[in-house]
Design goal:
4 strands, four-stranded antiparallel β-sheet, 4 helices, 166 residues, alpha+beta, elongated
């Protein structure tokens, strides 16, 4: 099934817009480290800054290095899009989500020097997940979609090879 370019553009635009809108409201409405409990002992909205990548990884690399890595990643995504997504709807839609999230975080880095994170999941004090944002969510969903699409395609191609051999 061929992906519809319109859907790819809408997924990209929605993921980027929702990321930037949610960050804007948290950034202007909260003080740094201010916390609002949404679900006690499970979910808070907490404004934190992140100079690393998703979930605070690679903080020590610095913003310039992360900027270069992000640009290289976007070029690789463009290559994957051209190579695989014309025939694979999951890869196309996944790439749209990853690109929207990555560019949303990149906007923060360029504009502010850091990324705004605010989704704070935890289970009492036994399990605390690093604070993240909507861009991180759509990046993870996009990567999962792409992997599913690539694996599905690999399995389908293996079945076709077996049919021809048998």
């Amino acid at each position: 099934m061929r992906p519809r370019f319109f859907v790819v553009v809408v997924l990209f635009a929605l993921s980027l817009a929702l990321d930037q809108v949610t960050k804007y409201f948290v950034h202007v409405g909260f003080h740094l480290y201010e916390r609002v409990v949404v679900i006690p002992d499970f979910l808070n909205i907490t404004l934190v800054t992140n100079e690393g990548t998703a979930f605070g990884l690679f903080n020590a690399l610095g913003p310039k290095t992360l900027f270069v890595i992000s640009i290289v990643a976007l070029v690789v995504m463009l290559f994957v899009y051209v190579r695989h997504s014309l025939r694979n709807v999951e890869v196309a839609y996944g790439l749209a989500l990853v690109a929207g999230g990555a560019i949303g975080n990149q906007f923060d880095r360029v504009r502010l020097g850091y990324v705004i994170d605010f989704i704070d999941f935890h289970y009492y004090d036994r399990f605390v997940w690093p604070t993240f944002n909507f861009a991180d969510v759509v990046i993870c969903i996009g990567v999962a979609l792409m992997l599913f699409g690539l694996l599905r395609r690999t399995v389908e191609q293996g079945a076709k090879v077996e049919e021809k051999a048998g």
